[in-house]
C-alpha cells in the first residue's frame, strides 16, 4: 500500500502496474500518475476510498469544469458505507440461505 498527501489531504492506495507515467510540460504529478489538462491518471488503485482526498479531488474537478460545487463533509465515509453494505448482505444470507448446508458443500 502507498500513502501520501495530495493538496493537504491524506490518500492511500495500492499499485498494480508496469512502467510509469510520464509528465509533459505543464502536467502535474498525481499519485505516481499524471494530470494533463482535463485528463487525470493515477497508479494508486483505491485512492478514491480516502474520503478527504476524494472530496478535494471532486472539488478540483468541478472547479476546472467551471462548476460551483462542494461535497458535504458530514456524509457517510466510504469505509462506513462499505461496512453497511457488507452487513446488509450478511444479514440477507443468514435469513435466506441454509448456511450450514452451503458450508458442507464447500468442504
Q: Can you characterise this structure?
A:
The chain is an alpha+beta fold. It is built from 3 helices and 5 strands, in the order E-E-E-E-E-H-H-H. The model has no long low-confidence stretch (mean pLDDT 89).
Give the overall pLDDT as a whole number: 89
SS summary, helix count:
3
Structural class: alpha+beta
Strand content: 15-25%
Q: What coarse outline follows from CA principal-axis ratios?
A: elongated
By DSSP, the count of extended strands is 5
The helix/strand order is EEEEEHHH
Q: Cα-atom Rg, whole angstroms? A: 19 Å
Distance between the amino and carboxyl termini: 33 Å
Give unreliable regions as ranges. Answer: none
Report the major sheet.
3 strands, antiparallel
Percent of residues in helices comes to: 25-40%
Order of neighbouring strands in the sheet with most strands: 3-4-5
Give the structure's gist in a few sentences.
By secondary structure, the chain is an alpha+beta fold.
Key phrases:
single chain, 107 residues, alpha+beta, 3-stranded antiparallel sheet, two-stranded antiparallel sheet, 5 strands, 19% strand, elongated
Architecture blueprint of SSEs:
Elements: E1 2-6, E2 9-13, E3 28-30, E4 33-36, E5 39-41, H1 51-64, H2 78-96, H3 99-106
